[in-house]
User: What shape does this take?
Amino acid sequence: MKPVKDIKKTLLSNNYYVLNKFVFKYLMRSGEWVTQMREVYDRGDGAGILLYNREKQTVILTKQFRMPTFLNDNADGFLVEICAGMLDKDNPEDCIIRETEEEVGYRLHSVKKVYEAYSSPGVMTEKMHFFIGEYTENMKVNSGGGLASEHEDIEVLELPFSKAIEMLNSGKIHDTRTIVLLQYALIHKLME
Ligand SMILES: Nc1nc2c(ncn2[C@@H]2O[C@H](COP(=O)(O)OP(=O)(O)O[C@H]3O[C@H](CO)[C@@H](O)[C@H](O)[C@@H]3O)[C@@H](O)[C@H]2O)c(=O)[nH]1
Ligand SMILES: [Mg+2]
Assistant: This one.
């Protein structure tokens, strides 16, 4: 049995993505029905990938300005992140292969899905699909940087895996998805 009923949705904003207010009855574990209200932001689902080269012992990350972080404690607003993007109605695999080419300039043949997880489950509907993918020099097709038409301005960082782990351990990575995939690489000994 579902623990919710009488769901009423009110649109608060649909400027670029959609923000709705939901008022609903929720069944407490005690058996009591209570009324709850939640604002829910819907901007679709996303996909992200850790790109690695075992032979070179390197990974590719990105650096870009993120306004929400600038507004909350990140002095210059730049964030080091895995390559990632939002699903444009395509499936997660196609999305991350497309994003990899747009953002960092490599045309991958195959990727491996490792996790599927909600990004911020109290606030957003977004589910994130996590991938890893091995890149080699002969897969390079452009210099990356993102879509000029969207004013994306993405710096491509190819760095030793050891350096990425040093950044992780010294608290210089402030993006959860990037932390997740670097830890995945460590746990699964991806570079060995
Ligand atoms: N005009 C306008 N453009 C926007 C807005 N929000 C996003 N965009 C544009 O939408 C595009 C999104 O680029 P993607 O690479 O597809 O997504 P992303 O921003 O990298 O998102 C990834 O990371 C997010 C975490 O910060 C994830 O939430 C998301 O699922 C994805 O993995 C960019 O061109 C960006 O400029 C907005 O409010 N207004
Ligand atoms: Mg992106």
Summary: The chain is about 20% helix and 40% strand. Residues 26 and 97 are 40 Å apart (CA to CA). The first strand starts at residue 4 and ends at 13. Residues 4-42 form one domain.
